[in-house]
Amino acid sequence: RALLTNDAPLLSLPPGSSDELVQLASRARLNRSLGQLAVELDLSWERTRTLAAHLQHWGVAEVCPRLQASQVITLNRRQRGPPSLSLYRRFSRHFPAFAARLSLPALLNRFAQPFTVKQHLDSLDANASNTVLRRCFAAVVQWLLQCEVLTALEPRPYYLPDLPHYAPNAPDLPTGAAAERQRALDALAHSEHDHRSAALREDFCVLAPHLDASTSVAEVAHHRSTAAAARHSVYTLLEQFPDHARACLH
Question: Are 216 and 155 in contact (CB under 8 A)?
Answer without folding.
Answer: yes
